[in-house]
Amino acid sequence: QSVLTQPPSVSAAPGQKVTISCSGSSSIIGNNHVSWYQQLPGTAPKLLIYENNKRPSGIPDRFSGSKSGTSATLGITGLQTGDEADYYCGTWDSILGAGWVFGGGTKLTVL
Amino acid sequence: EVQLLESGGGLVQPGGSLRLSCAASGFTFTNYAMSWVRQTPGKGLVWVSGISGGGGATYYADSVKGRFTISRDDSKNTLYLQINSLRAEDTALYYCAKNFRYSSDYYDYWGQGTLVTVSS
Fold first, then answer.
1. Are A22 and A106 in contact (CB under 8 A)?
2. Least C-beta-crowded within 10 Å: which of A46, A59, B83, B119?
3. pLDDT averaged over consecutive 10-residue blocks of chain B (120 residues)?
4. Residue A105: its chain B contacts at CB < 8 A?
């Protein structure tokens, strides 16, 4: 069982918007930056959002991140079939000393 | 261009050992923390171990403490993971990942992974 909780799956139609939540304790998410990773089928994870809401160069602004209290959220607008992937949140556990922790992952299906 | 290339995976019997390697290029390796993250087929990402830039500090998940040893050779731009007393539950794809700067920072680059299979 992951320290960070994500919904196992979400789905939406092309062009629609979807959000993926990542919840944890106030000591973990509340005190540390959250990052998000996209893993397309059969490939390595790729950084999507860092420091809660920043996008690396090359990531379209259809992807956004936010954090409030003990939860972080990844938003994707204008869904495309190419967005079908697993999405993971992660953060450094500076309180319990468990190192890096990831959510269990959310599979996005674009119907 | 940052590149991370893992190697050393394979089929090993329970109780056996392996040393995984990650050859890095495209950045000043010694200045950056690095980690190993594993993924069982069809499952999620699990952080295994991390090491600071220069190697002064190491970190391990509780599940691997005492069996795994992370190290780095900055002269060779290579990260290692020595895995001993392998168990079936260690079967996974092992990714090498670069931290943005420090061990607590996000992962900005990932390798393609090397597969470790533990089976008799």
1. no
2. B119
3. 97 97 97 97 94 92 94 97 96 97 94 97
4. 44-45
